[in-house]
Amino acid sequence: MGWALTSRTQQRLLVGLAVLVLLGTGFLPLVLAALELPLAGAQGLAHARAALAAPATWALLVRSLVLAASVTGLALALGVPLAALLAK
Question: What is the mean pLDDT of residues 49-62?
Answer without folding.
Answer: 95
